[in-house]
């Protein structure tokens, strides 16, 4: 499992949820706190998935912990 912090607006929750569901189905957890979505994913996103995420969600930061 990988913990990812995505700095994005609360309004980006639905597009982010749609993206993660398309990639991982229901195998992820997402919590929104103070400008960040904390996501627990089964694996890291690859370069192609990160590019698609960037096109889908207006986010300011992406960090894997």
Provide structural commentary.
- The chain is α+β, with helices and mostly antiparallel strands and 65 residues long.
- It has a single domain (2-64), classed as Alpha-Beta Plaits, CATH 3.30.70.
- The protein is 34% helix and 37% strand.
- It has helices at residues 13-24, 47-56, and strands at residues 2-8, 29-33, 36-41, 59-64.
- A 4-stranded antiparallel β-sheet has the order 2-3-1-4, covered by helices on one side.
- A hairpin with a 2-residue loop joins strand 2 (29-33) and strand 3 (36-41).
- Helix 1 (13-24) runs antiparallel to helix 2 (47-56).
- The chain is globular and about 25 Å long.
Notable features of this structure?
65 residues; alpha+beta; Alpha-Beta Plaits; 4-stranded antiparallel beta sheet; 37% strand; globular
Reported CATH architecture = 2-Layer Sandwich
Q: What are the low-pLDDT stretches, counting only 5+ consecutive residues below 50?
A: none
| Terminus-to-terminus distance | 10 Å
**What does the radius of gyration come to?**
10 Å
- For this entry, what is the oligomeric state of its chains? single chain
Compressed to H and E, one letter per element, the order equals: EHEEHE
What is the number of independent domains?
1
CATH fold-type name: Alpha-Beta Plaits
Largest sheet: 4 strands, antiparallel
